[in-house]
Amino acid sequence: MAWILIVFLILLGGLIAPFGDLLGTRIGKARFSILKLRPKKTATIVTIITGGFISAISIGLLLLVSEEFRQRLFVDIPFLQKTLDDSKKALIPLQKERSKLEAKINEKEKELNKLKSDVKEFRSGNVVIKRGQTLFIAEINSNPNIKSDLGKIYNTADRYVQKIVIPSKKEIKNILLWRPSDISKIEEVTAKNGSWILLIKSATNVLKGDNFVVVYPDLLQNKIILRKGEVITSEILEKNELDYRNVNSKVKTLLTKTSDKMRVRGSIVNEITTRGEFVKKIRDSLKNNKNIQYQLDVVSIRDSKPAEPIIVDLKITEL
Questions:
Q1: Rounded to whole angstroms, how far apart are CA atoms 23 and 15?
Q2: Whole-model pTM over 0.70
Q3: What b-and-e string marks burial along 241-261, b requiring 16 or more CB atoms within 10 Å of the CB?
Q4: Buried b (16+ CB within 10 A) or exposed e, 71-108
Q5: pLDDT digits (tens, 9 = 90+) for 70-108
Q6: What is the bridge-based pairing of β-strands 134-141 and 294-300?
Q7: Which residues does 127 contact at the CB level (< 8 Å), separation at least 6?
Q8: How far apart are CA 86 and CA 225, in angstroms?
Q9: 3-state secondary structure of 110
Q10: Which residue, among 258, 242, 239, has the nearest Cα to 299 in the 3D structure?
């Protein structure tokens, strides 16, 4: 059926085309004019109209004879257009998600490159000092000879770090590299009345045998950050938690919270020192009564400054 229709359309076009050409030629010779146009242009327009007539008849016959053509023209094409529009709308959030994903990938690539760099440093030698590690701590009190005191601190820190990085070298040399602006800042701050804690930290990973260590300062005011008798952290021990495992867990949680809280206040001490055995003290209290709640308070037993030990005791209160 399709081949018959194609052959018919070819024959029909072949018959109508000469007719249109002949009609245009005769109109041209007859000097016929439409809308006051020149005869030649009129003949051209007639030829064009004839070609359009051929196309219209072809499409009309296709619509009349071919159900498949009608299906594709009036059903499939609008459906495909609607599907395309819906796909474009659905693509918008996906494009946004793709942008976010690409940003995350770029961030992870940076982290990976940094990790590779650190691994390379570790593999290329023995790392004896890590980036950000505190190398030296000194207490500074303001006085007229503050620059001389700072010089002695720098020299002492140099000798200490040299023993870590180049222990075999007997000759004393300046191994620490400072930024001049950091030195100026230390001198400016410590020249004011008061007491200060100077922390000298490493700016990079350092391998054993390196000739220099790049450092930067961290200057803290040497003031009391914790008072004697002050309650630092507290926890409630419920009735259903009065067994050894829960008690031990509560104590660990209390000490972790205490350590975190003191770091926020400015303490540079890594560990909390406890007086007595916390767990034993709680268990002894529980022997008297296990049917009530208890409040556990971590209490400071002395005044403490940033570089001084944090020593605490446990206070147990029945609720």
A1: 13
A2: no
A3: ebeeeebeebbeebbebbbeb
A4: eeeeeeeeeeeeeeeeeeeeeeeeeeeeeeeeeeeeee
A5: 666 565 556 566 677 777 777 788 778 888 888 888 888
A6: unpaired
A7: 121, 205, 206, 207, 208
A8: 64
A9: helix
A10: 258
Q: What angle do CA 181, 183, 187 make, to 5 degrees?
A: 115
Structure tokens at 262: 């003191």
Q: Which residue has the tokens 């459906």?
A: 79
- Between helix 180-190 and helix 146-165 the angle, nearest 10°, is 130
CB 239 within 8 A of CB 296: no
**Residues 272-310: tens digit of each pLDDT:** 888 767 667 777 766 666 667 778 889 999 999 988 889
Interior CA angle at 70 toward 66 and 71, to 5°?
110
Q: Which of 232, 237, 238 is nearest to 259 (CA)?
A: 232
Give the pair of three-digit tokens for residue 206. 């350092």
Structural contact between residues 271 and 259, judged by C-beta atoms closer than 8 angstroms: yes
Burial class (CB in 10 A: 0-12, 13-18, 19+), 161: buried
Cα-to-chain-centroid distance, residue 274: 38
